[in-house]
Amino acid sequence: MNDLIVFNKPYGVICQFSAHEKHASLKDYIDAPGFYPAGRLDTDSEGLLLLTNNGRLQAQIAEPKFGKEKTYWAQLEGSPDEAKLNLLRQKMDLGDFTARPARVRVLNAAETAALWPRQPPIRVRKSVPDFWLEITLGEGKNRQVRRMTAKAGYPCLRLVRVAIGRLNLFEQNLALGQWQYSNEKP
Fold first, then answer.
1. What is the pLDDT of residues 11-42, one digit of tens each?
2. 138-166 in b/e burial notation, b at 16+ Cβ within 10 A?
3. How many whole angstroms separate alpha carbon 38 and alpha carbon 98?
4. Which one, of 132, 135, 146, 124, lies nearest residue 80 by Cα?
5. Looking at the DSSP assignment, which residues form a beta bridge with residue 181?
6. CA 84, 89, 93 angle in degrees (round to 5)?
7. Radius of gyration of the chain (CA)
8. Residues 93, 42: Cα–Cα separation, whole Å
9. SS3 at position 181
10. Catalytic residues, which ones?
């Protein structure tokens, strides 16, 4: 029996099954009674969301104490600067918790070509450049990537989760808004 669902969550979808007055919910995309998100992905973030009907698996995926790595692609305002990027590679005090060091690398246009267009599109300012950064965390707390990049001086324009552990969104061949059962564990 499959106890894991892999979903490519669109922007604007809230990670709950109950109806929401402003946003589409998981119920609008997934018909799989008994499955619940293993962790969250903010409404304004996109990409890989795992759902399970197995409580132990849910904890192994979602709880920071298990250190399941989560990889994000962030479109950031500004230009890459090693001093700023190094801030992300160190412990960072975010007020309510201290984030562990992240692994980061600048992505090139060929890598990000696999991404779908976001609806609605991000705001583009002709006078302000942007770039894509891959960020890998061993935790994944509330709005952590956005908070870390903002503290490093890079406002986040778009955030896409591309991997949880060994499960990579691009290896799943899922179009935006599609889901499938998986026997592969993250």
1. 999 999 988 889 999 999 999 999 999 988 99
2. ebbeeebbbbbbebbebebbbbbbbbbbe
3. 23
4. 132
5. 5
6. 85
7. 16
8. 21
9. strand
10. 42
